[in-house]
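Researcher: Structure for this, please.
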Amino acid sequence: MNTFINSGKVTAIVSFIIGTIILILHIYLKDEIGIMIIGLYYTIAAFFINAILFLSLIIAAFIKEKYRKQLAASAGILLVNIPIAFIYILIVFQFNKW
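Model: Predicted structure, token format:
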């Protein structure tokens, strides 16, 4: 169960790091459309992966009362990436002046 609990934390951290690297590459390489496409696909994939894991953690929290607090905390950490992703999207739109 500890591995499952930690999977939310690890996924959140990895998603944040990869997203940040893609944003930095986008800013550094300026008009490189390939990075924007990679970023778009990554954002979609990360959304689905994080959403599935989030729902799994919430369901497990209802089923496994003994681990409810830890599972809910791990699910909450995944939610932190939502405003970060939104800010990154705003930065990309501002950077490109569409």
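Researcher: Any notable elements?
Model: The mean pLDDT is 92. The chain has one domain: 2-96.
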